[in-house]
Predict the structure.
Amino acid sequence: MTTLFTTSRRDLNHIFSSWPFSKWGMDIIGTFVPSKGQVKFLLVDIDYFTKWMVHSTASGATLVM
């Protein structure tokens, strides 16, 4: 059996938030095979204080710096 992912060992960093909905994290997962509505990406947002999660889908993504 082979390992698909390898990472170096390191300590985890805690992320603190003072009150609900003041700090959010966002992950973009994709590309998937286009489905109904040509959706190819999954967007996942999480509030660091309450661990409340919101998800949505998208058909395209653009990198803006």
The longest strand covers residues 24-30. Residues 23 and 48 are 6 Å apart (CA to CA). The two ends are 40 Å apart (CA to CA). Residues 24-58 form one domain.
